[in-house]
Every structure is written in C-alpha cells, then in structure tokens.
Amino acid sequence: MLAPLLSTYQQAFVEAGCDEAGRGCLAGPVFAAAVIFPADYHNAVLNDSKKLSEKKRMALRPIIEQEALAYAVASVSAEEIDKINIHKASYLAMHRALDLLQVKPEYLIIDGNKFIPYGETPYSCIVKGDGKYLSIAAASILAKTYRDEYMNALAADFPDYDWLSNKGYPTLKHREAVIRLGITEHHRKTFRITDPQLTLF
C-alpha cells in the first residue's frame, strides 16, 4: 500500500502543482498540467503516474478533473522543442497550462529541481514531487494521460513506429523503425534518435 501524499506544501496561498510528460521522448509534443486542489483535499489512491497502471491513471483522471478547484493541460510541439530545446519547452508547457487555469495560483510547486519563473509567482521545486504532493501527482496523471491519447491518435497513421506501445519513447523497436524508415514530421530532429551501437542485421 502506497503512503498517502500531502495535501499542500504551504497553506498561506492558493497553490498549484505542475508536472510534465514526454520529456525523454523521440517523437511528439511535451505535455504539462497544472492542478489546484482545495487546501484540505485528500485522496488515498492518487500517486505519481509512474507508480500507477494505465487503467488506474485513466480512472483517476475524471476524479481529478471533477474534484480540483482548477486544472489545465497544455503542450509544446516537436517543432517548438527543436527550436528552444526540451528543457525550455518543458517549462513553457507548464507556463501555458498555468495560463489556462480558471483560478489564479498564488504559489507553485514544481516537480523536479529547476523551473523558469512564471511571472512574479513564488514557487518551490520539489525533487520527486509527484510522489509527495497530491497536486503534482494529479498534474503528472493529467499530463501523461493526455499525451498518451495524443500519441495513440498519431499511431494510427504511423504504425511501424509502435507508438501505441512506446508513446514516442526511445525503445529498441522505435529506434529500429527510425533506422529503417527515417523520421516523421512528429520526431524531434535535434534528439539523438539512434544509438551509435544500434545496428540492424
């Protein structure tokens, strides 16, 4: 049984948790989400998306969307990633999600150890925050499920890259397809798509 996560990092201000999905992928956008829960919110099942099955993530998504005070999901395209790099793109996706929130956050908690400030809004970066705070965990689930759906839709037109299974991550089958077929318009051209040791026999 996973330990329950904390409701808030601080209680003086309206707090939004932020996380991204797809940072390490070879193809597709990076997605990010921002979630604001009530200060006393509790959910014993909610946890880091990586610790949950796809079925559990999808079951939790409508609960998050119904019980959050506000939530938003946004993305940055592969083309934009190639222009500004994946690090800046991850933070830009978070900024875009924050822009879409119907409730203005007064404090941000960000999964990870770095962030580009969002205006004057104070923030804290929390390493493995998606396994510590409910709003970050919820953001990780929204970002992951929305991105997975996006990649599933693309997969229908590009079946050889196995995106239904790998969602754009650099699996062996995905990299082998790139070697055989080349890249698509959805691939990140600045990423190192193939490992130099990877050869086909």
TrEMBL record:
Location of the protein in the cell: Cytoplasm
Main location: cytoplasm
Catalytic activity: Endonucleolytic cleavage to 5'-phosphomonoester
Keywords, ordered alphabetically: Cytoplasm, Endonuclease, Hydrolase, Manganese, Metal-binding, Nuclease
Annotated cofactor note: Manganese or magnesium. Binds 1 divalent metal ion per monomer in the absence of substrate. May bind a second metal ion after substrate binding.
GO CC terms in record: cytoplasm; ribonuclease H2 complex
A Pfam family this chain is assigned to: RNase_HII
GO molecular function: manganese ion binding; RNA binding; RNA-DNA hybrid ribonuclease activity
Annotated positions binding a divalent metal cation: 19-20, 111
Domain RNase H type-2 intervals: 13-201
Biological processes, Gene Ontology terms: DNA replication, removal of RNA primer; mismatch repair
Family: Belongs to the RNase HII family.
Biological role: Endonuclease that specifically degrades the RNA of RNA-DNA hybrids.
Protein name: Ribonuclease HII
